[in-house]
């Protein structure tokens, strides 16, 4: 049960938060689908070429779950990876130990405490109803903090829709980089990423839980998640932009957290880390799709710092 919950928690970071890249117990990376003809491969995601001081790197927008028919990625992406000296991701998604340590530190209560003591009676009653719908006993999640339980519930919805964590884009990129003997560099750590959620107050975590339960009940959680995957699959820039606006606008804890922390705080830090990497050499950089969107996205920030950033598609 523990590994099942960890899987669902990690899965939902990618689609309820849309930017998180949590590691989970090692999953089989998607193998190249050689049977698909290259000429039939559609454009997916979004790709940028970045020039600075004679070096050329690439930025590619990823999603952290997938289906077999997402692969292979289109030739411009695979060619960009082949030309690059290293692969850069938010995290090494193959590593499970750092995730477990971070989850224990930021997502679980100290011994002797449970979620029962930290939620209001009304919130606890709504949580019980939500858990009953997916046949999860409260005892199986009571040691997790509300933000973790919210993501577990969203993860249940995502899993039912047929998305597969083992077929995430990062796994495909890692598989190809390994075959090409390219080193991997990480932009962040699991402790840092989960620590962002852990920084929410008890009141904010309760609101985050209730908002996600309401989104599940209304169908909005799956609509947003599936919509983002579909937009990535069609390289639909206008729909990606519209979904980003929806996810970051409003007075909800979830929207403010997405706008100010998951994107607003991390994007400048990612851009600075990418600059440091590019000072040493070229790289293929795969980061969550929403980090590349808008005038506060990583491409825009790199332009502000004097980098020549060209959108390939």
Description of the molecule:
There is one protein chain. The N and C termini lie far apart (42 Å). 45% of the residues are buried. The chain has helices at 2-15, 75-83, 97-107, 121-133, 146-160, 169-179, 190-198, 202-218, 220-233, 237-248, 253-263, 266-280, 298-304, and strands spanning 47-52, 55-62, 87-89, 184-186, 284-288, 308-311. A 6-stranded mixed sheet has the order 4-3-5-2-1-6, with helices on both faces. Helix 9 packs antiparallel against helix 10 (237-248). With 313 residues, the protein is α/β, with parallel strands linked by helices. The longest helix is centred in the C-terminal third of the chain and has 17 residues, at 202-218. The protein is globular.
The portion of residues forming beta strands comes to 5-15%
Mean pLDDT: 88
Rg result: 19 Å
Cα separation of the termini: 42 Å
Instruction: Write down how many β-strands occur, each being a DSSP E stretch of 2 or more residues.
Output: 6
Structural class: alpha/beta
Strand order of the largest sheet: 4-3-5-2-1-6
Principal-axis shape equals globular
Order of helices and strands: HEEHEHHHHEHHHHHHEHE
Characterize the biggest β-sheet: 6 strands, mixed
Approximate helicity band: 40-55%
Q: Number of helix segments?
A: 13
Uncertain residue segments: 1-38
Characteristic key phrases:
313 residues; alpha/beta; six-stranded mixed sheet; 6 strands; 50% helix; 9% strand; globular; disordered N terminus
Q: What does the secondary structure layout of this molecule look like, with pairings?
A:
Blueprint: H1 2-15, E1 47-52, E2 55-62, H2 75-83, E3 87-89, H3 97-107, H4 121-133, H5 146-160, H6 169-179, E4 184-186, H7 190-198, H8 202-218, H9 220-233, H10 237-248, H11 253-263, H12 266-280, E5 284-288, H13 298-304, E6 308-311
Parallel strand pairs: 2-5, 3-4, 3-5
Antiparallel strand pairs: 1-2, 1-6
Helix pairs in contact: 1-5, 3-7, 4-8, 5-8, 9-10, 12-13
């Amino acid at each position: 049960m523990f590994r099942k919950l960890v899987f669902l928690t990690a899965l939902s970071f990618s689609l309820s938060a849309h930017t998180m890249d949590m590691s989970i117990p090692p999953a089989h990376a998607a193998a190249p689908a050689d049977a698909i003809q290259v000429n039939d491969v559609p454009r997916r995601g979004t790709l940028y070429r970045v020039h600075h001081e004679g070096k050329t790197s690439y930025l590619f927008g990823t999603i952290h779950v997938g289906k077999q028919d997402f692969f292979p990625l289109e030739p411009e992406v695979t060619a960009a990876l082949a030309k690059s000296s290293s692969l850069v991701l938010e995290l090494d998604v193959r590593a499970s130990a750092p995730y477990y340590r971070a989850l224990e530190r930021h997502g679980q209560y100290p011994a002797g405490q449970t979620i029962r003591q930290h939620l209001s009676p009304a919130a606890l009653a709504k949580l019980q109803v939500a858990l009953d719908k997916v046949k999860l006993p409260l005892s199986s999640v009571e040691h997790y903090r509300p933000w973790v339980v919210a993501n577990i519930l969203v993860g249940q919805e995502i899993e039912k829709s047929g998305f597969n964590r083992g077929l995430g884009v990062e796994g495909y990129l890692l598989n190809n980089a390994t075959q090409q003997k390219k080193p991997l560099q990480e932009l962040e750590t699991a402790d840092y990423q989960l620590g962002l959620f852990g920084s929410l107050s008890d009141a904010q975590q309760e609101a985050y839980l209730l908002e996600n339960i309401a989104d599940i009940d209304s169908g909005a959680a799956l609509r947003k998640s599936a919509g983002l995957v579909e937009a990535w699959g069609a390289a639909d820039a206008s729909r990606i932009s519209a979904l980003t606006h929806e996810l970051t606008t409003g007075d909800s804890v979830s929207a403010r957290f997405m706008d100010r922390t998951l994107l607003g705080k991390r994007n400048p830090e990612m851009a600075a880390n990418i600059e440091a990497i590019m000072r040493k050499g070229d790289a293929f950089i795969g980061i969550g799709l929403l980090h590349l969107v808008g005038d506060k996205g990583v491409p825009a920030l790199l332009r502000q710092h004097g980098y020549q950033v060209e959108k390939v598609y």
